[in-house]
Amino acid sequence: MENQKIALITGANRGIGFETAKQLGEKGVTVVLTARQLNVAQEAADKLKAQGIDAFGVQLDVTKADERKAVAEYLSDKFSKLDILINNAGVAPKETLSVNKTIDTTADEFEYVFNTNLFSVVYLTKELLPLIKKSSAGRIVNLSSILGSLTLHSQENSPIASFRVLSYNASKAALNMFTTHLSAELEGTGIKVNSAHPGWVQTELGGDGAPMNITDGAKTSVELALLNADGPTGKFIHLGEELPW
Q1: pTM of the predicted model, to two decimals?
Q2: Is 168 noted as a catalytic residue in this protein?
Q3: Which one is catalytic: 74, 112, 123, 168?
């Protein structure tokens, strides 16, 4: 087990999270899939087990402190370390992302989006960091979005101007800030921390009209999870290309 890589993927019961677990599993990584309901997480893990992948399902609502702690204890007891943390779970406003609104964003919407997309990522990462420090090649991947790019949003003819949803975009920009700060804090430890933009993918969030399929949407997370020692850290990446903050 010492040389076996262990990965935890949040929100892994469907979409990009499930595909990320599948691709990592196909590369010989032991994958721990989380979902808000235990039976859902276990069903997802069982699908991968049926394909010969070493997979486990664990309950985790990332917004709940007791469940974050329980996951840390589970990983400690079962594996004694964690090599890869993929903070994949995320939410969008309950309305569509194509409804531009800024000043009318409600407090409820801000709290709903930021609790999952930022605060829970910080708290879960803190809970699991002692286990990641036991890895010989710790990797933390934060699932961001190009919609969190201040540089692109501020361009005169911004390619993402039709997606100005303050709660979601600001949560991803803040997540990117967490990536830069944590990577700097962990400098010299060998742990790499990066933000991943999966692309506009055909998921429940992305919709059927998105240009990328789920297989390709998971590739950035997988690549960042398996970076070599000379790979980047503290960067915003999509399919091997660096994006502007």
Answers
A1: 0.95
A2: yes
A3: 168
How far apart, in whole angstroms, are the C-alpha atoms of residue 67 and residue 85? 16
Give the span between the Cα atoms of 142 and 118, in whole angstroms: 10
pLDDT > 70? residue 98: no
Q: What does the buried/exposed string (b/e) look like for 98-127 if buried means 16 or more CB atoms within 10 Å of the residue's CB?
A: eeeeeeebeeebeebbbebbbbbbbbbbeb
Topology adopted by domain 6-242: Rossmann fold (3.40.50)
Any idea of the CA torsion for 119, 123, 124, 128, to the nearest 10 degrees? 150
The first and second tokens of residue 52, run together, are: 């010969």
Tell me the residue type at 15: G
CA pair distance 138, 197, nearest whole angstrom: 20
Buried-state track 35-71, b at ≥16 Cβ within 10 A, e below 16: bbeeebbbebbebbeeeebebbbbbbbbbeeebbeeb
Half-sphere exposure (Cβ direction) of 232: Cα atoms closer than 13 Å: 19
Percent of the chain with pLDDT over 90: 84
Enumerate the domain spans of the chain.
6-242
- pLDDT of residue 148 exceeding 90, the answer is yes
